[in-house]
Write a structure and sequence with these properties.
mainly alpha, Multidrug efflux transporter AcrB transmembrane fold, 9 helices, 67% helix
Amino acid sequence: MPSLLHADDLKQRITRLRNQPDFSAQAGRDSEVVGLDPVSLPDGQRAFRSVVVMVSDPSINSLKSPFETWDGTLASAEWKLVSTALAQGTTLDQVSSFSPTVARSLVANATVAVAISLLLMLGYIWVRFGSFRFSFCTVLALVFNMIVCLGALAYSGMLSHTGLGAALHMSDFRIDLNVVAGLLTVLGYGLNDTVVILDRVRENRGKATYATRNVVNSSINQSFGRTVLTGGNSVATALILYELGGSGLKPFGYVYFVGVLVSTFSSIAIAATLVYAQREDPTAQREGAAAGTAIVTA
């Protein structure tokens, strides 16, 4: 064990170890590190020759529980955790794997956040465009984006063991805070890209209550250049984050890269095409009538 201890550093190591699978039973306990016999260091910091670690667990009471239960469930387990934390180096790497309990809680929170976001988007676009069809098509495209991104995350584990995965520096990406941030970023990017195209559809349809095939086709062609430029810049950003962002940003860059590609596709091939109403185009009717009149006259 080190001769001098830093209270803040030890507290951080203890907190990180509680999220490790080996100490999942001790996750959520409150702890505080109090230093004793302080020593001033040349750099102005203060260290301690000994520390006291105080742990609180509301479910275990030393006055009401048997001593054997208290010692085996709390005291001995915490002594093992603190000993492991002291044996670690002074620069403990950030924990990237979580216990099943923490992982389930993280997945539940992410699911609720995405679901609430989709519902709020559904209501906003419904009011913005005045059409439930536009709103439903947009949310459907966003759900498609999320499904593809989650599938790409699951596929990364299989691809990482291949030669292609090794060449691309891939690993078995898991759902963590960076991945959740990436999913929400993709959600916002896909929404923006889809709304831009659908807004052009709304402008081109004029006062009509539905979008014809010609309106949808013209709207896609008019906004295609903007979509390619925006998507290209976003793809370049995602690749830079993936290659140069380090191991911490690599999952985010991977999800963002896949999300940009699939969002560009879904905004054109799913959302824009689904707002098309299979009705006769009034312009085509007028042109056909004029052509028929010209033929009869001839």
